[in-house]
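Annotated sample (chain length 481).
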Amino acid sequence: MILLIFGLAVFLRVYRLKTNFYFDSDLADNFINVRTFIESKQIPLIGPSTSHEWLNDSPLAYWILTPIIAFFNFDPISTAYFTAFMGILLIFLSYYVVRKVFSKRMAIIASILMAVSPLWIEYSRAGKYYFLSTISFFLVFLNLVGYIREKRNKNLIWTAFWLGVCISLNYSQLVLIIPVFFTFIRFVKKVKPKQILTSLFVMVLFFVPLILYDTKNNFSMLAKFALWIPYRIAGFFHLHGQNNPTTNSLRMSTESITQMLGASFFSRPEFWIFGVLIFIASIFMLVSDYRSNKRSSAPIFFLILTSFFGIFAMYIHGSAPVNYLMSTFAAPIIIFAYVIATYIKKRSAYFAGLALLIGISWLNFSYQAKNGYYQAQPKIIKDPPFIPYSYLTDIVQTITNDANGRGFSLIRSGPFDNYSLYNAKNYIYLCWYLGNKPQVSSDLVYHIYENTPDKPDNSEDVLLGGDIFLTKYESKCNCSD
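Output written by the structure step:
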Protein backbone atom coordinates (compact mmCIF):
# COMPACT_ATOMS: atom_id res chain seq x y z
CA MET A 1 0.00 0.00 0.00
CA ILE A 2 2.73 2.46 0.93
CA LEU A 3 4.46 1.88 -2.43
CA LEU A 4 1.22 2.76 -4.26
CA ILE A 5 0.92 5.91 -2.16
CA PHE A 6 4.56 6.70 -2.91
CA GLY A 7 4.00 6.27 -6.66
CA LEU A 8 1.00 8.60 -6.53
CA ALA A 9 3.00 11.17 -4.58
CA VAL A 10 5.83 11.06 -7.14
CA PHE A 11 3.44 11.62 -10.04
CA LEU A 12 1.58 14.51 -8.39
CA ARG A 13 4.80 16.29 -7.43
CA VAL A 14 6.85 16.04 -10.63
CA TYR A 15 4.24 15.84 -13.42
CA ARG A 16 4.73 18.90 -15.69
CA LEU A 17 6.82 20.53 -12.97
CA LYS A 18 9.07 22.55 -15.25
CA THR A 19 6.18 23.66 -17.46
CA ASN A 20 4.18 25.03 -14.53
CA PHE A 21 6.98 26.18 -12.23
CA TYR A 22 6.86 29.79 -11.00
CA PHE A 23 10.34 31.27 -10.65
CA ASP A 24 9.43 34.38 -8.66
CA SER A 25 11.63 37.27 -7.52
CA ASP A 26 12.04 35.93 -3.95
CA LEU A 27 13.34 32.61 -5.23
CA ALA A 28 15.61 34.37 -7.71
CA ASP A 29 17.04 36.41 -4.83
CA ASN A 30 18.18 33.15 -3.21
CA PHE A 31 19.90 32.11 -6.46
CA ILE A 32 21.59 35.49 -6.88
CA ASN A 33 22.94 35.40 -3.32
CA VAL A 34 24.13 31.80 -3.66
CA ARG A 35 25.89 32.74 -6.90
CA THR A 36 27.56 35.65 -5.10
CA PHE A 37 28.74 33.42 -2.24
CA ILE A 38 30.19 30.89 -4.68
CA GLU A 39 31.92 33.51 -6.84
CA SER A 40 33.39 35.30 -3.81
CA LYS A 41 34.19 31.99 -2.04
CA GLN A 42 32.44 33.19 1.11
CA ILE A 43 30.61 31.18 3.75
CA PRO A 44 27.37 33.06 4.52
CA LEU A 45 26.72 34.03 8.13
CA ILE A 46 23.18 35.27 7.48
CA GLY A 47 20.36 33.74 5.51
CA PRO A 48 17.69 35.04 3.14
CA SER A 49 15.95 38.29 3.98
CA THR A 50 12.49 38.07 5.49
CA SER A 51 9.44 40.22 4.80
CA HIS A 52 10.98 42.71 7.25
CA GLU A 53 13.92 44.43 5.57
CA TRP A 54 15.92 44.62 8.82
CA LEU A 55 15.71 40.87 9.54
CA ASN A 56 17.40 37.83 7.97
CA ASP A 57 16.90 34.13 8.58
CA SER A 58 19.83 32.04 9.76
CA PRO A 59 22.32 30.92 7.06
CA LEU A 60 21.12 27.29 7.21
CA ALA A 61 18.96 27.82 4.12
CA TYR A 62 21.98 28.96 2.07
CA TRP A 63 24.12 26.11 3.42
CA ILE A 64 21.50 23.69 2.09
CA LEU A 65 20.80 25.48 -1.20
CA THR A 66 24.39 26.27 -2.23
CA PRO A 67 25.58 22.72 -3.01
CA ILE A 68 22.28 21.93 -4.77
CA ILE A 69 22.33 25.02 -6.97
CA ALA A 70 26.05 24.56 -7.71
CA PHE A 71 25.60 20.86 -8.54
CA PHE A 72 22.89 21.69 -11.09
CA ASN A 73 24.99 24.49 -12.56
CA PHE A 74 22.69 27.30 -11.35
CA ASP A 75 19.64 25.92 -13.16
CA PRO A 76 16.58 27.86 -11.83
CA ILE A 77 14.50 24.68 -11.78
CA SER A 78 16.94 22.86 -9.46
CA THR A 79 15.36 23.86 -6.15
CA ALA A 80 11.90 22.92 -7.44
CA TYR A 81 13.07 19.37 -8.11
CA PHE A 82 14.81 19.35 -4.74
CA THR A 83 11.68 20.35 -2.79
CA ALA A 84 9.60 17.94 -4.89
CA PHE A 85 12.02 15.17 -3.89
CA MET A 86 11.77 16.23 -0.23
CA GLY A 87 7.98 16.32 -0.54
CA ILE A 88 8.06 12.71 -1.73
CA LEU A 89 10.33 11.68 1.16
CA LEU A 90 7.89 13.39 3.51
CA ILE A 91 5.30 10.74 2.64
CA PHE A 92 7.63 8.07 3.99
CA LEU A 93 8.53 10.22 6.99
CA SER A 94 4.89 10.93 7.86
CA TYR A 95 4.09 7.22 7.55
CA TYR A 96 6.96 6.30 9.87
CA VAL A 97 6.19 8.99 12.46
CA VAL A 98 2.42 8.49 12.57
CA ARG A 99 2.84 4.71 12.76
CA LYS A 100 5.35 5.08 15.59
CA VAL A 101 3.21 7.57 17.52
CA PHE A 102 -0.27 6.18 16.77
CA SER A 103 -0.90 3.12 14.56
CA LYS A 104 -0.26 1.57 11.15
CA ARG A 105 -3.87 2.10 10.07
CA MET A 106 -3.68 5.79 10.90
CA ALA A 107 -0.26 6.09 9.22
CA ILE A 108 -1.65 4.78 5.93
CA ILE A 109 -4.59 7.19 6.08
CA ALA A 110 -2.34 10.17 6.89
CA SER A 111 0.06 9.24 4.07
CA ILE A 112 -2.77 9.05 1.54
CA LEU A 113 -4.15 12.41 2.67
CA MET A 114 -0.72 14.03 2.45
CA ALA A 115 0.08 12.45 -0.91
CA VAL A 116 -3.03 13.96 -2.55
CA SER A 117 -3.26 17.18 -0.51
CA PRO A 118 -3.26 20.23 -2.83
CA LEU A 119 -1.48 22.28 -0.16
CA TRP A 120 1.38 19.80 0.22
CA ILE A 121 1.65 19.30 -3.53
CA GLU A 122 1.83 23.04 -4.17
CA TYR A 123 4.63 23.68 -1.68
CA SER A 124 6.48 20.54 -2.75
CA ARG A 125 6.65 21.98 -6.27
CA ALA A 126 7.46 25.58 -5.28
CA GLY A 127 11.23 25.29 -4.74
CA LYS A 128 11.13 27.39 -1.54
CA TYR A 129 13.66 26.54 1.18
CA TYR A 130 11.24 27.09 4.07
CA PHE A 131 9.23 24.04 2.97
CA LEU A 132 11.97 21.99 4.63
CA SER A 133 10.69 23.14 8.02
CA THR A 134 7.80 20.66 7.59
CA ILE A 135 10.35 17.84 7.83
CA SER A 136 11.60 19.33 11.08
CA PHE A 137 8.04 19.42 12.46
CA PHE A 138 7.62 15.66 12.07
CA LEU A 139 10.98 15.01 13.73
CA VAL A 140 10.19 17.38 16.61
CA PHE A 141 6.86 15.58 17.06
CA LEU A 142 8.46 12.13 16.96
CA ASN A 143 11.24 12.90 19.42
CA LEU A 144 9.06 14.88 21.83
CA VAL A 145 6.57 12.01 22.10
CA GLY A 146 9.47 9.55 22.28
CA TYR A 147 10.97 11.41 25.24
CA ILE A 148 7.63 11.60 27.06
CA ARG A 149 7.06 7.85 26.64
CA GLU A 150 10.57 6.49 27.09
CA LYS A 151 12.44 9.25 28.97
CA ARG A 152 15.55 8.82 26.83
CA ASN A 153 17.85 11.82 26.97
CA LYS A 154 18.74 11.62 23.28
CA ASN A 155 15.09 12.20 22.35
CA LEU A 156 15.07 15.50 24.23
CA ILE A 157 18.29 16.61 22.53
CA TRP A 158 16.94 15.64 19.09
CA THR A 159 13.71 17.53 19.86
CA ALA A 160 15.77 20.66 20.50
CA PHE A 161 17.94 20.00 17.44
CA TRP A 162 15.02 19.75 15.01
CA LEU A 163 13.23 22.64 16.66
CA GLY A 164 16.34 24.72 16.01
CA VAL A 165 16.35 23.61 12.36
CA CYS A 166 12.68 24.46 11.99
CA ILE A 167 13.03 27.97 13.44
CA SER A 168 16.28 28.76 11.64
CA LEU A 169 14.61 28.04 8.29
CA ASN A 170 11.71 30.39 9.01
CA TYR A 171 11.21 32.57 12.08
CA SER A 172 7.44 32.24 11.86
CA GLN A 173 7.96 28.70 13.17
CA LEU A 174 9.00 30.18 16.54
CA VAL A 175 5.41 29.59 17.57
CA LEU A 176 6.18 25.85 17.66
CA ILE A 177 8.12 26.45 20.88
CA ILE A 178 4.84 27.08 22.72
CA PRO A 179 3.15 23.68 22.11
CA VAL A 180 6.49 21.93 22.69
CA PHE A 181 6.92 23.76 26.01
CA PHE A 182 3.38 23.16 27.31
CA THR A 183 3.37 19.53 26.20
CA PHE A 184 6.69 19.04 27.95
CA ILE A 185 5.62 20.53 31.28
CA ARG A 186 2.23 18.78 31.10
CA PHE A 187 3.60 15.25 30.59
CA VAL A 188 7.17 15.32 31.93
CA LYS A 189 7.18 15.17 35.70
CA LYS A 190 10.92 15.24 36.31
CA VAL A 191 13.93 16.30 34.27
CA LYS A 192 17.53 17.12 35.15
CA PRO A 193 18.64 20.75 34.67
CA LYS A 194 21.67 19.49 32.74
CA GLN A 195 19.35 17.93 30.13
CA ILE A 196 17.47 21.21 29.72
CA LEU A 197 20.66 23.26 29.38
CA THR A 198 22.18 20.81 26.88
CA SER A 199 19.02 20.88 24.77
CA LEU A 200 18.86 24.68 24.79
CA PHE A 201 22.53 24.84 23.79
CA VAL A 202 21.87 22.50 20.82
CA MET A 203 18.93 24.61 19.66
CA VAL A 204 20.86 27.89 19.89
CA LEU A 205 23.82 26.47 17.92
CA PHE A 206 21.99 27.13 14.65
CA PHE A 207 21.98 30.86 15.36
CA VAL A 208 25.65 31.26 16.31
CA PRO A 209 26.67 32.40 12.77
CA LEU A 210 23.87 34.98 12.83
CA ILE A 211 25.01 36.19 16.25
CA LEU A 212 28.60 36.48 15.00
CA TYR A 213 27.41 38.48 11.99
CA ASP A 214 25.34 40.81 14.15
CA THR A 215 28.29 41.59 16.42
CA LYS A 216 29.49 43.92 13.64
CA ASN A 217 26.26 45.89 14.03
CA ASN A 218 26.16 45.92 17.85
CA PHE A 219 23.45 43.24 17.76
CA SER A 220 21.01 45.70 16.22
CA MET A 221 19.12 43.06 14.23
CA LEU A 222 18.71 40.54 17.04
CA ALA A 223 17.91 43.23 19.60
CA LYS A 224 15.25 44.67 17.34
CA PHE A 225 13.81 41.20 16.74
CA ALA A 226 13.72 40.47 20.49
CA LEU A 227 11.74 43.67 21.03
CA TRP A 228 9.56 43.17 17.95
CA ILE A 229 7.86 40.00 19.25
CA PRO A 230 6.43 41.49 22.50
CA TYR A 231 5.76 44.72 20.58
CA ARG A 232 3.49 42.86 18.13
CA ILE A 233 1.75 40.96 20.92
CA ALA A 234 1.15 44.16 22.90
CA GLY A 235 -0.16 45.87 19.78
CA PHE A 236 -2.61 43.05 19.12
CA PHE A 237 -4.07 43.46 22.61
CA HIS A 238 -4.19 47.29 22.21
CA LEU A 239 -1.59 47.86 24.94
CA HIS A 240 -0.11 50.58 22.73
CA GLY A 241 -1.33 52.51 19.74
CA GLN A 242 0.74 50.85 17.00
CA ASN A 243 0.17 47.62 15.03
CA ASN A 244 -3.34 47.20 16.36
CA PRO A 245 -5.46 44.66 14.48
CA THR A 246 -7.60 46.17 11.73
CA THR A 247 -10.51 44.78 9.78
CA ASN A 248 -8.21 44.33 6.78
CA SER A 249 -5.41 42.58 8.70
CA LEU A 250 -7.88 40.23 10.41
CA ARG A 251 -9.52 39.49 7.07
CA MET A 252 -6.21 38.69 5.37
CA SER A 253 -5.10 36.43 8.22
CA THR A 254 -8.46 34.65 8.14
CA GLU A 255 -8.10 34.15 4.39
CA SER A 256 -4.64 32.60 4.86
CA ILE A 257 -5.92 30.29 7.60
CA THR A 258 -8.91 29.30 5.45
CA GLN A 259 -6.59 28.59 2.52
CA MET A 260 -4.27 26.44 4.65
CA LEU A 261 -7.10 24.38 6.12
CA GLY A 262 -9.16 24.22 2.92
CA ALA A 263 -6.30 23.49 0.53
CA SER A 264 -5.22 20.62 2.77
CA PHE A 265 -8.11 18.76 1.14
CA PHE A 266 -9.52 20.75 -1.82
CA SER A 267 -8.03 22.61 -4.80
CA ARG A 268 -11.08 24.73 -5.59
CA PRO A 269 -11.22 27.86 -3.40
CA GLU A 270 -15.00 27.65 -3.23
CA PHE A 271 -14.62 24.28 -1.45
CA TRP A 272 -12.10 25.51 1.14
CA ILE A 273 -14.87 26.17 3.66
CA PHE A 274 -15.49 22.41 3.74
CA GLY A 275 -11.85 21.89 4.69
CA VAL A 276 -12.31 24.35 7.56
CA LEU A 277 -15.43 22.49 8.71
CA ILE A 278 -13.58 19.15 8.53
CA PHE A 279 -10.85 20.59 10.71
CA ILE A 280 -13.24 22.08 13.29
CA ALA A 281 -15.26 18.86 13.53
CA SER A 282 -12.05 16.82 13.84
CA ILE A 283 -10.77 19.07 16.65
CA PHE A 284 -13.98 18.57 18.63
CA MET A 285 -13.68 14.80 18.23
CA LEU A 286 -10.01 14.94 19.21
CA VAL A 287 -10.74 16.93 22.36
CA SER A 288 -13.45 14.47 23.39
CA ASP A 289 -11.02 11.58 22.89
CA TYR A 290 -8.14 13.25 24.71
CA ARG A 291 -8.75 11.94 28.23
CA SER A 292 -9.95 8.46 27.27
CA ASN A 293 -6.84 7.53 25.26
CA LYS A 294 -3.89 7.61 27.65
CA ARG A 295 -1.28 6.38 25.15
CA SER A 296 -2.18 9.09 22.65
CA SER A 297 -2.97 11.88 25.10
CA ALA A 298 0.46 13.58 24.73
CA PRO A 299 0.49 13.64 20.89
CA ILE A 300 -3.18 14.69 20.82
CA PHE A 301 -2.43 17.49 23.28
CA PHE A 302 0.53 18.61 21.16
CA LEU A 303 -1.47 18.62 17.90
CA ILE A 304 -4.31 20.62 19.44
CA LEU A 305 -1.90 23.23 20.84
CA THR A 306 0.06 23.38 17.58
CA SER A 307 -3.14 24.12 15.68
CA PHE A 308 -4.41 26.69 18.17
CA PHE A 309 -1.19 28.67 18.62
CA GLY A 310 -0.32 28.48 14.92
CA ILE A 311 -3.64 30.05 14.00
CA PHE A 312 -3.51 32.56 16.87
CA ALA A 313 -0.03 33.69 15.82
CA MET A 314 -1.36 34.51 12.35
CA TYR A 315 -3.74 37.04 13.87
CA ILE A 316 -1.05 38.51 16.12
CA HIS A 317 1.26 39.03 13.15
CA GLY A 318 -1.53 40.38 10.96
CA SER A 319 -1.88 40.04 7.18
CA ALA A 320 0.39 36.99 7.25
CA PRO A 321 0.83 34.74 4.17
CA VAL A 322 0.03 31.02 4.20
CA ASN A 323 3.66 29.90 4.52
CA TYR A 324 3.78 31.45 8.01
CA LEU A 325 1.62 28.48 9.05
CA MET A 326 4.22 25.97 7.85
CA SER A 327 4.66 24.44 11.31
CA THR A 328 0.89 23.84 11.40
CA PHE A 329 0.59 22.27 7.93
CA ALA A 330 0.74 18.67 9.16
CA ALA A 331 -1.75 19.09 12.02
CA PRO A 332 -5.02 19.06 9.99
CA ILE A 333 -3.87 15.97 8.06
CA ILE A 334 -2.83 14.01 11.16
CA ILE A 335 -5.90 15.10 13.14
CA PHE A 336 -8.32 14.06 10.37
CA ALA A 337 -6.46 10.76 9.91
CA TYR A 338 -6.86 10.14 13.66
CA VAL A 339 -10.62 10.74 13.43
CA ILE A 340 -11.01 8.39 10.47
CA ALA A 341 -8.89 5.65 12.06
CA THR A 342 -10.68 5.97 15.41
CA TYR A 343 -14.32 6.40 14.42
CA ILE A 344 -14.64 4.51 11.12
CA LYS A 345 -14.34 0.85 12.08
CA LYS A 346 -16.58 -0.95 9.59
CA ARG A 347 -14.88 -2.10 6.41
CA SER A 348 -17.78 -0.90 4.28
CA ALA A 349 -17.54 2.62 5.74
CA TYR A 350 -13.75 2.53 5.39
CA PHE A 351 -13.91 1.66 1.67
CA ALA A 352 -16.69 4.19 1.13
CA GLY A 353 -14.42 6.84 2.64
CA LEU A 354 -11.53 5.68 0.46
CA ALA A 355 -13.74 5.94 -2.64
CA LEU A 356 -14.74 9.47 -1.59
CA LEU A 357 -11.08 10.41 -1.15
CA ILE A 358 -10.26 9.07 -4.62
CA GLY A 359 -13.15 11.08 -6.05
CA ILE A 360 -11.98 14.29 -4.36
CA SER A 361 -8.42 13.64 -5.57
CA TRP A 362 -9.62 13.25 -9.14
CA LEU A 363 -11.61 16.50 -8.91
CA ASN A 364 -8.51 18.24 -7.52
CA PHE A 365 -6.33 16.88 -10.33
CA SER A 366 -8.88 17.85 -12.99
CA TYR A 367 -9.06 21.37 -11.59
CA GLN A 368 -5.27 21.75 -11.51
CA ALA A 369 -4.98 20.39 -15.06
CA LYS A 370 -7.12 23.30 -16.25
CA ASN A 371 -6.26 26.07 -13.80
CA GLY A 372 -3.15 25.16 -11.83
CA TYR A 373 0.12 23.29 -11.83
CA TYR A 374 -0.77 20.49 -14.28
CA GLN A 375 -1.70 22.64 -17.27
CA ALA A 376 -0.45 21.46 -20.65
CA GLN A 377 -0.41 25.08 -21.84
CA PRO A 378 -0.07 27.08 -18.61
CA LYS A 379 -1.78 30.44 -18.35
CA ILE A 380 -0.80 33.57 -16.50
CA ILE A 381 -2.82 33.99 -13.31
CA LYS A 382 -3.18 37.41 -11.71
CA ASP A 383 -4.42 36.43 -8.24
CA PRO A 384 -2.49 34.82 -6.72
CA PRO A 385 0.31 35.89 -9.10
CA PHE A 386 1.54 33.04 -11.29
CA ILE A 387 3.70 33.34 -14.40
CA PRO A 388 4.77 30.00 -15.89
CA TYR A 389 8.49 29.38 -16.15
CA SER A 390 8.16 28.84 -19.90
CA TYR A 391 6.60 32.30 -20.26
CA LEU A 392 9.35 33.92 -18.20
CA THR A 393 12.07 32.33 -20.32
CA ASP A 394 10.28 33.44 -23.52
CA ILE A 395 10.32 37.04 -22.27
CA VAL A 396 13.98 36.88 -21.31
CA GLN A 397 14.89 35.17 -24.58
CA THR A 398 13.11 37.95 -26.47
CA ILE A 399 15.17 40.51 -24.55
CA THR A 400 18.52 38.80 -25.17
CA ASN A 401 17.74 38.22 -28.86
CA ASP A 402 16.69 41.82 -29.35
CA ALA A 403 19.68 43.21 -27.43
CA ASN A 404 21.96 41.11 -29.64
CA GLY A 405 24.95 41.52 -27.34
CA ARG A 406 24.31 45.14 -26.37
CA GLY A 407 24.25 46.13 -22.73
CA PHE A 408 20.83 46.85 -21.30
CA SER A 409 18.93 47.60 -18.09
CA LEU A 410 15.63 46.24 -16.81
CA ILE A 411 12.59 47.90 -15.25
CA ARG A 412 9.48 46.10 -14.07
CA SER A 413 6.06 47.57 -13.31
CA GLY A 414 3.73 45.32 -11.34
CA PRO A 415 2.93 44.02 -7.85
CA PHE A 416 5.57 44.93 -5.23
CA ASP A 417 7.61 46.92 -7.77
CA ASN A 418 8.53 49.26 -4.89
CA TYR A 419 10.86 46.50 -3.64
CA SER A 420 14.55 46.32 -4.49
CA LEU A 421 15.32 46.21 -8.23
CA TYR A 422 11.61 46.66 -9.04
CA ASN A 423 11.06 43.10 -7.71
CA ALA A 424 12.43 41.91 -11.06
CA LYS A 425 15.17 39.64 -9.76
CA ASN A 426 13.70 36.62 -11.54
CA TYR A 427 14.12 38.36 -14.91
CA ILE A 428 17.58 39.64 -13.94
CA TYR A 429 18.76 36.18 -12.90
CA LEU A 430 17.33 34.50 -16.02
CA CYS A 431 19.08 37.07 -18.22
CA TRP A 432 22.36 36.19 -16.50
CA TYR A 433 21.63 32.46 -16.74
CA LEU A 434 20.93 32.74 -20.47
CA GLY A 435 24.17 34.66 -21.03
CA ASN A 436 23.33 38.39 -21.04
CA LYS A 437 23.44 39.96 -17.60
CA PRO A 438 21.67 43.34 -17.21
CA GLN A 439 23.81 46.36 -16.39
CA VAL A 440 23.58 48.96 -13.65
CA SER A 441 22.74 51.60 -16.21
CA SER A 442 22.41 51.58 -19.95
CA ASP A 443 20.94 53.63 -22.77
CA LEU A 444 18.93 50.58 -23.80
CA VAL A 445 16.13 49.87 -21.31
CA TYR A 446 13.63 47.01 -21.36
CA HIS A 447 10.42 47.62 -19.43
CA ILE A 448 8.23 44.71 -18.30
CA TYR A 449 4.58 45.47 -17.46
CA GLU A 450 3.33 42.58 -15.33
CA ASN A 451 -0.18 42.36 -13.85
CA THR A 452 -0.53 46.13 -13.72
CA PRO A 453 -3.05 48.64 -15.14
CA ASP A 454 -0.11 50.73 -16.38
CA LYS A 455 0.43 50.51 -20.11
CA PRO A 456 3.34 51.50 -22.36
CA ASP A 457 3.33 55.07 -23.71
CA ASN A 458 4.04 56.08 -27.28
CA SER A 459 7.77 56.53 -26.62
CA GLU A 460 8.22 52.79 -26.07
CA ASP A 461 8.57 50.10 -28.72
CA VAL A 462 6.31 47.15 -27.85
CA LEU A 463 8.06 43.78 -28.30
CA LEU A 464 5.44 41.60 -26.60
CA GLY A 465 1.81 42.27 -25.72
CA GLY A 466 -1.09 40.51 -24.07
CA ASP A 467 -1.10 39.64 -20.36
CA ILE A 468 2.47 40.94 -20.02
CA PHE A 469 3.88 43.82 -22.08
CA LEU A 470 7.56 44.01 -22.93
CA THR A 471 8.84 47.29 -24.33
CA LYS A 472 12.17 48.96 -24.98
CA TYR A 473 13.36 52.56 -25.17
CA GLU A 474 16.53 54.61 -24.98
CA SER A 475 17.13 56.27 -21.61
CA LYS A 476 19.27 56.33 -18.49
CA CYS A 477 18.43 53.89 -15.69
CA ASN A 478 19.97 52.71 -12.43
CA CYS A 479 18.84 49.12 -11.94
CA SER A 480 20.58 45.74 -11.86
CA ASP A 481 21.68 43.02 -9.51
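Annotation: Residues 2-243+343-371 form one domain.
Annotation: The two ends are 49 Å apart (CA to CA).
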